[in-house]
């Protein structure tokens, strides 16, 4: 059965013609990292550090943070990489000691990387802790900033990360970042597309609004065009561009993303096998045709139908 096929999948992921695709897990803490490391994943594409801060009323010390980060890096050893995301506080992720109170529009306010404009030390302590964790585990940490809007922000973040020997990247979650992905790539080593927020900001539809789910759908062709622009920019300079939003866990959409030139997909560990199985059933040429079909569609429903036709014939 299909279920048995999925359960038996052991990786590594390739298309049926042998093109490799990096499949990564999204994790939140040492326990989820240890569980993910047992499975067929190439590493972690998104370690959401804010989840570890949610319970605290005060900022964890550098030592406490270093312990936590080492606990996440450790299970992946030296041969699989972990991408740690710096604190993404604000809006849908309120953190007691970091979130700006009383904003009119918190989704458009001082959140994510923007918190460091006024208070750079919180970000700097996080980077210090990650450097210590990397040294302890003997690995080279990748680190990325959320909610980056401009190339200048990417440059500033990259400088801070490189100063500590960390490999810098930024998330593409704001349309401005996708449109100017080639500029961001002048400063960072990789990009990671957060389709949850990229969809929210492209469609101007709150990701938490249950009555707007037809708009907060990553199959929206406008969102996919921004993903395609970002992937093409990475391909042009030979730098990796991943997707770490919910879109990566949809097996058919995963084929579309690969067809656009996305090099890695990061998702809940439980979704990895189904995506690996689907990729193994299609050729690179089919993925490229699926991408073209989705980009040419007028709405998510038409995009899904056109892609199913290309992939399943
Ligand atoms: C995203 O926005 O797609 C993402 C991966 O980050 P988060 O869901 O944590 O905002
Ligand atoms: Mg996000």
TrEMBL record:
It catalyses: L-histidyl-[protein] + phosphoenolpyruvate = N(pros)-phospho-L-histidyl-[protein] + pyruvate. Keywords: Cytoplasm, Kinase, Magnesium, Metal-binding, Phosphotransferase system, Sugar transport, Transferase, Transport. It is an enzyme of class 2 (transferase). Belongs to the PEP-utilizing enzyme family. The chain holds residues 246 to 558 of 558 of the full protein. Its cofactor is Mg(2+). It is found in: Cytoplasm. General (non sugar-specific) component of the phosphoenolpyruvate-dependent sugar phosphotransferase system (sugar PTS). This major carbohydrate active-transport system catalyzes the phosphorylation of incoming sugar substrates concomitantly with their translocation across the cell membrane. Enzyme I transfers the phosphoryl group from phosphoenolpyruvate (PEP) to the phosphoryl carrier protein (HPr). The keyword Magnesium applies. Its EC number is 2.7.3.9. It comes from the Bacteria. The keyword Transmembrane does not apply. It comes from Nocardioides nanhaiensis. Residues 10-279 form the PEP-utilising enzyme C-terminal domain. This is Phosphoenolpyruvate-protein phosphotransferase.
């Amino acid at each position: 059965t299909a279920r048995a096929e999925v359960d038996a999948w052991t990786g590594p992921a390739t298309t049926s013609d042998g093109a490799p695709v990096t499949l990564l897990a999204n994790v939140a803490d040492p326990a989820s990292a240890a569980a993910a490391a047992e499975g067929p994943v190439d590493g972690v594409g998104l370690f959401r550090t804010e989840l570890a801060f949610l319970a605290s009323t005060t900022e964890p010390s550098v030592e406490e943070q270093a312990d936590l980060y080492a606990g996440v890096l450790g299970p992946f050893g030296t041969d699989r990489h972990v991408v740690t995301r710096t604190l993404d506080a604000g809006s849908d992720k309120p953190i007691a000691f970091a979130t700006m109170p009383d904003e009119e529009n918190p989704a458009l306010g001082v959140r994510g990387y923007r918190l460091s404009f006024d208070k750079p030390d919180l970000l700097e302590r996080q980077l210090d802790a990650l450097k210590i964790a990397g040294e302890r585990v003997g690995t080279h940490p990748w680190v990325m900033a959320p909610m980056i809007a401009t190339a200048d922000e990417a440059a500033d973040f990259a400088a801070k990360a490189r100063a500590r020997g960390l490999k810098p990247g930024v998330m593409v979650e704001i349309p401005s970042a996708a449109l100017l992905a080639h500029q961001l790539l002048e400063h960072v080593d990789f990009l990671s597309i957060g389709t949850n927020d990229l969809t929210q900001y492209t469609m101007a539809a709150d990701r938490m609004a249950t009555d707007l789910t037809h708009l907060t759908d990553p199959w929206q062709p406008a969102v996919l065009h921004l993903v395609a622009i970002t992937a093409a920019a990475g391909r042009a300079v030979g730098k990796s561009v991943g997707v770490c939003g919910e879109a990566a866990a949809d097996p058919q959409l995963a084929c579309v993303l690969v067809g656009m030139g996305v090099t890695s997909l990061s998702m809940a560990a439980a979704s990895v096998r189904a995506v690996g199985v689907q990729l193994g059933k299609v050729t690179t040429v089919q993925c490229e045709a699926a991408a073209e079909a989705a980009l040419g569609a007028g709405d998510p429903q038409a995009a899904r139908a056109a892609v199913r036709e290309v992939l399943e014939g």
